[in-house]
UniProtKB/TrEMBL annotation, chain A:
GO terms for molecular function: double-stranded DNA binding; RNA binding. GO terms for cellular component: transcription export complex 2. It comes from Zooxanthella nutricula. One of its GO terms (biological process) is transcription elongation by RNA polymerase II. The lineage of its organism: Eukaryota, Sar, Alveolata, Dinophyceae, Peridiniales. This is PCI domain-containing protein.
TrEMBL record, chain B:
Residues 18-347 form the SAC3/GANP/THP3 conserved domain. InterPro entries: SAC3/GANP/THP3, SAC3/GANP/THP3_conserved. PANTHER family: 80 KDA MCM3-ASSOCIATED PROTEIN, GERMINAL-CENTER ASSOCIATED NUCLEAR PROTEIN. It comes from the Eukaryota. One of its GO terms (cellular component) is transcription export complex 2. Pfam families: SAC3_GANP. This is SAC3/GANP/THP3 conserved domain-containing protein. One of its GO terms (biological process) is mRNA export from nucleus.
């Protein structure tokens, strides 16, 4: 609620392309009235009617100084740095733009730390600055990549800055929203850099500080808490901690606004594999609603015990799952499919035997079906069934001498 | 021949031979010649160099070192050196040549020489980057080095050598990683260059200059190399494998040769040891070498699963031939040794396949108590303690 837009006059101001002086004055007013969302609308070039720097008519002025003077004593310095960053962007100076964004972010965070109370109104612009810095770093890294030199150098520098901010915010008991958001930025970066092992210490630090203060992350603004639970859940997926992953991702999905279909889909890309591993199959309607065709045939294969279909679809989508990091989790579902197949063979053999059906079955039908479905030879079939018994998916034992599988009566 | 240390221009090698005369003479004087470079009949206390057989020795490269073009081999000369090393030296332990001073040389010494000299070739190529990166010789040399190191991993692992030199698996793997990184980078650069050329061609309406129109070399072995890399990572450094896979393009990941490797990795990681061992049994030699790092672990885990799921109150048995095939052993001796090590008794019976039964003991019996897979932890083993030696399956494939 603290982040909802309020003043219609301010909204109108945000929509009209302002002069530089008017922009600074609007910034000062919005900051003094603590209207964080309107602040972002004012300063985001994409939202404020595509305001470009040239519309601000710098007229040869030093934007950083002008912004600092006109933006108010409390927050003008941050405005000045941001305007200088826009200038650098307009001049095509990518490195300088990133440097100024980082300085602006550090300055704004320091102001956030020093603000009274929770400073919640300052978090929308904090989020905006983090996004802008990340995009600037990504663009610079992409340009470097095309020169066949090492990539992600700028993202790594940004990580260092976020780590500093994280350490500072970790000490502030009232500034949990900003602390958790910076944590989200670091988690996002670590996933991109493939440094998953770095996420553990971060999540432990956040959990400890939250527990220490008796603070519930679900009480944070939704934009922050949903993002946090998404990355936390994603990390649990990568560490094969499925129950925790299910809990975190389900919370994120249930609390992500329904209009944010793209974000909900991102959550489902990790939640669906977890649910599948926990034995919960998503409905076809859900998969179609979120454009998750990648799972449709795999779910069908699990339901039917169709190993061939499973293998075919996993091969078709292997690259996608590998890029997402869920390849092994999905491949582990093969034994779920095999279990269904085993059950189907068991049922069919007993049905054919009718009243003479016993629980001791010849292994040969299983060998035939497994060979047909997955190209398994007799030894592989025996190994698969042994594995299913060992996992507890099938109750019974396997007699190699007599070539029989003895199933438990239940 | 001014080095890049002085004028900033890329280095272009000028040495056409395998080794400069200057270096050969210097090493003769300082007694740093290798036995493969000696003149026939030379006094081994003061060996003389056979200039035709000398190959440039490895020297550590560094950014501030001054290199002379005259000391650096041309790109073509690097490949000629590689060809010489692989055709004349690689099989010297089993096929000595009369042109050399020494005739009896164990493979560990052949390996030691080749490791040094192939590394030297790679350094000469790296010094001439980026010009050399997309040259065919760069790719051929690195692919050859990777195959050589993999072959040596097989030939020298678990071997007892009377030589004072010993093979260190870690050093071998380090050489492999030092070869893989520039090789994968070269493939990537070649792709980017080809893409840039196609964009340029489109802009020019399909008309390119003579030099630009020349097609870039595409290695026919690239996908096979990717397969080896994935399987080597699976075997020896699995923590980075998922990240490595995520960086590969979709084209590479979906190629059958590469998709095979990801499926093998998935089989091992998801406890599908039956499939893993079947593939190990059927794979070509080098693919099996790349998988060999985890073969024994797959075997002990597959055996563990068999041992935990038979009817223990009455015991069970299966033929040695079956176990030998199932666990992908290339010989009955290897199978017997492995089973005995893990506490399983083998009872000879000429009437059965493989000439023996493998006995799965009755619960409560002395044999059951003596079988660690049965009596020990209920958790799947996380390592295999069976002493490392030449894997019989690899030996069978090699022979």
């Amino acid at each position: 609620a603290a982040l909802e837009p309020a003043c219609s006059a301010a909204a109108a101001m945000a929509r009209a392309p302002p002069s530089l002086g008017a922009l600074c004055a609007a910034f000062r007013r919005l900051a003094e009235s603590e209207e964080g969302v309107q602040l972002v609308h004012l300063l985001d070039p994409l939202r404020s009617g595509k305001v470009l720097l040239r519309d601000l008519h710098p007229g040869g002025r030093n934007l950083e100084e002008f912004g600092a003077q006109q933006g108010g004593e409390a927050y003008g310095q941050a405005l000045g740095l941001y305007l200088a960053c826009l200038q650098a962007k307009a001049d095509g100076e990518g490195v300088r733009e990133l440097e100024l964004l980082c300085t602006c972010l550090k300055t704004w965070v320091q102001m956030y730390i020093e603000a009274e109370g929770t400073g919640l109104w300052m978090t929308p612009w904090l989020i905006f600055l983090c996004n802008a810095a990340r995009m600037a770093a990504t663009q610079l890294d992409q340009a470097k990549r095309s020169e066949a030199t090492s990539s992600d150098a700028y993202l790594k520098k940004l990580v260092e800055i976020h780590r500093e901010l994280f350490q500072k915010l970790n000490k502030e008991r009232t500034k949990r929203a900003g602390h958790v958001w910076v944590c989200c930025e670091l988690l996002r970066a670590y996933f991109k850099l493939g440094q998953i092992s770095q996420c553990s210490f971060l999540l432990t630090a956040v959990s400890q500080s939250l527990n220490r203060d008796g603070f519930n992350p679900t009480e944070l603004p939704k934009a922050i808490s949903v993002t946090f639970f998404y990355y936390w859940g994603k990390h649990c997926v990568f560490t094969h901690n499925l129950r925790d992953a299910d809990e975190k991702l389900t919370w994120a999905f249930n609390n992500c606004p329904s209009k944010c279909k793209g974000n909900r889909r991102k959550i489902l890309l990790y939640l669906v594999p977890c649910k599948l591993r926990l034995g919960v199959l998503p409905t076809p309607d859900l998969l179609h609603a979120y454009d998750l065709a990648i799972f449709v045939d795999i779910v069908r294969a699990i339901r039917e015990g169709n190993v061939r279909l499973f293998a075919e679809k996993m091969e078709e989508h292997a690259a996608d799952f590998i890029k997402m990091g869920t390849y092994l989790i999905m491949m582990k579902l093969k034994f779920t499919v095999l279990r269904s197949l085993t059950r189907n063979v068991h049922r069919e053999v007993r049905r054919q035997k009718g009243d003479n059906a016993a629980h001791k079955l010849d292994i040969q039908p299983f060998e035939s079906v497994f060979s047909w479905q997955d190209g398994c030879d007799a030894d592989e079939t025996a190994c698969i069934i042994s594995n299913l018994i060992y996992q507890g998916a099938v109750k019974g034992y396997l007699s190699h001498e007599h070539r029989k599988i003895v199933f438990a009566k239940d | 021949g001014v080095s890049p240390a002085f004028d900033g221009a890329p280095l272009v090698g000028e040495l056409e031979g395998m080794c400069s005369l200057e270096e050969a003479k210097e090493r003769q004087m300082t007694r740093q010649l290798d036995k493969f470079e000696w003149k026939v009949g030379t006094d081994i206390r003061h060996p003389e160099v056979n200039a035709a057989l000398a190959t440039k020795k490895y020297q550590r490269s560094s950014a501030d070192k001054a290199y002379r073009s005259s000391d650096v081999r041309t790109v073509d000369s690097c490949w000629r050196t590689m060809e010489y090393l692989m055709t004349e030296i690689l099989d010297f332990d089993v096929n000595p040549k009369p042109a050399y001073a020494m005739q009896k040389v164990p493979y560990i010494e052949v390996y030691s020489y080749l490791r040094d000299r192939t590394r030297s070739c790679r350094v000469d190529l790296h010094l001439q980057q980026p010009r050399s990166t997309t040259h065919r010789c760069f790719l051929d040399t690195h692919e050859c080095c990777l195959r050589f190191e993999m072959l040596s991993l097989f030939l020298l692992t678990g071997g007892s050598s009377s030589s004072t030199e010993k093979y260190d698996v870690k050093l071998g793997l380090k050489a492999i990683s030092q070869t893989i990184e520039p090789l994968l980078n070269a493939y990537q650069v070649a792709k980017e260059k080809a893409l840039a050329k196609s964009i340029l061609a489109e802009c020019m309406g399909g008309l390119l200059g003579e030099e630009d129109a020349e097609e870039e070399y595409v290695s026919p072995f690239e996908m096979a190399m990717h397969r080896y890399v994935i399987l080597l990572l699976m075997s020896f450094s699995s923590e980075g494998l998922l990240q490595h896979l995520a960086k590969l393009s979709r084209d590479i990941l979906s190629h059958p040769l590469v998709s095979f490797a990801t499926q093998v990795f998935a089989a091992f990681s998801t406890d599908d040891y039956g499939m893993f061992l079947r593939v190990y049994r059927q794979a070509d030699f080098l693919t099996a070498v790349a998988m060999s790092g985890v073969a024994d672990l797959a075997r002990v885990r597959a055996l563990f699963l068999l041992v935990r799921t038979y009817p223990q109150p009455v015991g069970d048995k299966l033929s040695l031939a079956r176990i030998q095939t199932f666990l992908a052993f290339g010989s009955a001796e290897h199978a017997r040794g492995f089973l005995a090590f893990h506490g399983l008794r083998v009872q000879d019976d000429p009437a059965v396949g493989g000439g023996a039964w493998v006995l799965l003991p009755k619960k409560g019996s002395a044999d059951a108590a003596a079988c660690p897979l049965l009596a020990g932890s209920a958790k799947m083993p996380d390592k295999c303690e069976y002493p490392q030696s030449a894997d019989s399956m690899l030996v069978a494939k090699f022979e």
